[in-house]
Design a protein that fits this description.
Length: 478
Amino acid sequence: MTALPHGRQFVLTWGIPRDYGGLTAALLQRSRLFDRLGGVAVDVLTCDDRADVRATATELAERHALSPRVRVRNLWDWLGENDLHGKPVTAASGFAPLATGAAEERAGEAVVRRIRTDAGGRVLQIDHLRPDGTLAASDRRDVPHTGGGVRRIIVTCDATGAPRAAWRGVRALYAAWLDRLTAGERSFVLVDSKAMARFAAGYRRPHVVVAHIVHGSHLTDDGSALRPSRAEVFARLGAFDAVVFCTTRQARDVRRRVGPLPLLAVVPHPVAPVGVSAAERRGAVVLARLEPIKRVEHAVEAAVRAADRVPGLTLDVYGDGPERDRLQEMAGSGEVVRFHGFTPSAREALSSASVLLLTSRSEAFSLVIAEAMAAGCLPISYDIPYGPRELIRHGRTGWLVPPGDVSALTDALVRAIATDESVLDRMRQDAVARTRALDERTILDRWGRVLRRAQRRHAARRQTWRVRDALRRRLRIR
């Protein structure tokens, strides 16, 4: 019998970029787990309006990032092929499609979006086109409001491009889409992104259990305060049927902040077993999106410094992002640091590298550390909340160094490379053993228990909602 409760499974996230990082890797991994071992299909729902959503979905399938019953469905792409009931289109809907000649975005040869912006580059309207060129949806953000100001109205169109239905605000559209997809059946919606959690906190349906998964640290880099980007959702954690963290420490810290009301649970990311090679390991590796929060420049600087003390040392960097050009310039033209870009098979490098460097400003679980340890690649990480501190046993399964201290990072890298191989072998064995508690079956069972608790809480809250709604109706009648 499956470990998961009966019901349809949905994942809600903002989008899946082609060079995706840890959050997307984790939600795809969980979705495959629900399919392969849980025996249920999973619909991954995205709401971003990029031009390349179809190409990205195709690439995911080609990379085997999806399993047979895991599919990605994008809202705007879906609207081009399906009807959705909304409000009647009136003059107040501001329906005014953009003409040919407006700024366009293409996917291959086809025009998929027309865009109107103001003088400062702020988007005022996006028209989404079908592959045949007909208008599927017009998203205006500058419709005049009778009370003053402007509002956002989305109008969907039939196969001829004629207006069909309208929504005031994109959250109303999200809700209508979820209502249509869940179709009144018992469903679980797992919300992975901060952006979509803002909407999902207000989405309440009798047949839908909603859980929010918190992937990143909720704290500022110095650990002193709540991140502004988390404030809206963390003020409403009680609105979710469950809030799931990846580490016990983070759940405990959040509990002190939000009190006893929300259902907080802990489910780490699963780590598949890896055949640890007996071949000689060489050099260091970084697997990270190249963006400021990852501070990959610290790893590059440490490797360049360490190479002066350890001849032949190399650092292989897998990942892409806005910092790549700067990092390549910083690394210089030598042979110490090698950039490989975004590579779907990057994790295979963990089986041959001696150490992994992690230099992030913050982490919640750090899936890459767990995967490195499972592959016998020893992590050297900044000692930041939460994942590194829970996964690494300093000197036994890896090394922790003071956050932001590049000199300490360099010294740790030199020591790791110079450590006797017999000691390293013992550490690798301990690292692999530590990740066995994160095997897929164990994690699936934990998900089953959490979703059942969320389901029970949802059922209890429905009774409260009914009483509250009945009282409101009575007060209105009076």
